[in-house]
Amino acid sequence: MASNTAQTWRKRDRAHANQGHRRKVKESKHSTPSYDELFAGFGEPGKPAKK
Fold it and tell me: Can you give the pTM of this predicted structure?
């Protein structure tokens, strides 16, 4: 049987790895704006943009 310390270290290492993975997933959820979001400030085509 592994020592309590070894189990704790493994658990802690895994938790830290999972936290990093969760952070990356959250960052990648909406990293790129859609076409509509990207050009929303330009207004309607053929008309002057809002000031």
Answer: 0.50
